[in-house]
Amino acid sequence: MDLNPNPASTQLSVPGLEALMDSAWPAAEREESDGWVLRAASGVTQRANSVWPRDPGEDPHRVLAALRAARLWYRTRRLPLIFQVFDGPRSAALNAVLDDEGFTRQSETLVLIREPGAEPGADVAPEPAVEMSSEPSAEWLDLWWSVDGRGGAAELAAARGILAGCPAVYALVRDDGGVPAAVARLALPDAQPAGPRWAGLYCMATRPEARRRGYGGRIVRALLREGGARGVDGYWLLVMASNTGARDLYAGAGFREACRYLYRQERPKRHLTGC
């Protein structure tokens, strides 16, 4: 993980965030190819079935060669070729090639971080009604999949494999009737260098009829407190740029935008699950 050049800073660089995000949502298959990481997971979620251009490249000829190799890799798996492209000058040459090749731009996503020592934090109160576990329960999976999932039993099994690929804490809060109202996941990647420890908030999902009742905020506060008890210093999360309600919730919890990315797809064939 690369850190900000200022040694007194605890802010992650964009490449550092990319590496953490890859660890927190690992694909069943992955292959390194000329600075790119090719990922596949039976078509379940765009992130786990897209190219992570860890080193996007500056030479258009090299980018085209890598693109041809990636196209063949995904074709043999009967998956569309999709890139997770982060905004910024590092991706300029790659974006230019993808523009020429007619790749779409979709699913703009913000990466928000809550830096070590950010406020609010010290005053996060306990949320005793929020249930915590080291594995997703059947109720947790049912609620999350009903909100964010697409597909049947096979797709859910693939999604569960992705979740199990990184240590995590799973949170669930119930409504007054005892029915699960909201869930979320705190990913705790093991592979981190010395320095501040980071964790990622994923799978935030609230049952439609339970929305706007404060359950999402309770889940976030509970996971921040749980993370602190486990030695976590900073946090990141992903949110669609169009989701203004969620962005307001996260801003109130001390998160701010660090970077953003788009998915760029060659030719859509089927709708993949999640962001």
Report on the architecture of this protein.
With 275 residues, the protein is α+β, with helices and mostly antiparallel strands. 31% of the residues lie in helices and 25% in strands. Strand 1 and strand 2 (36-40) form a beta hairpin.
Helices and strands, with pairings:
Layout: H1 14-24, E1 29-33, E2 36-40, E3 51-52, H2 60-76, E4 82-86, H3 92-100, E5 106-114, E6 131-133, H4 138-148, H5 153-164, E7 168-174, E8 180-187, E9 198-206, H6 215-229, E10 234-240, H7 244-252, E11 256-265
Parallel strand pairs: 9-10
Antiparallel strand pairs: 1-2, 2-3, 4-11, 5-10, 5-11, 6-7, 7-8, 8-9
Observed structural traits:
275 residues, alpha+beta, eight-stranded mixed β-sheet, three-stranded antiparallel β-sheet, 7 helices, globular, disordered N terminus
SSE pattern, N- to C-terminal: HEEEHEHEEHHEEEHEHE
Helix count, DSSP H or I runs of 4 or more residues: 7
The level of helicity is 25-40%
The total strand number stands at: 11
Give the end-to-end Cα distance, rounded to a whole number of Å. 23 Å
Compute the average pLDDT: 90
Shape: globular
Largest sheet: 8 strands, mixed
Q: Which strands sit side by side, in order, in the main sheet? A: 4-11-5-10-9-8-7-6
Radius of gyration: 19 Å
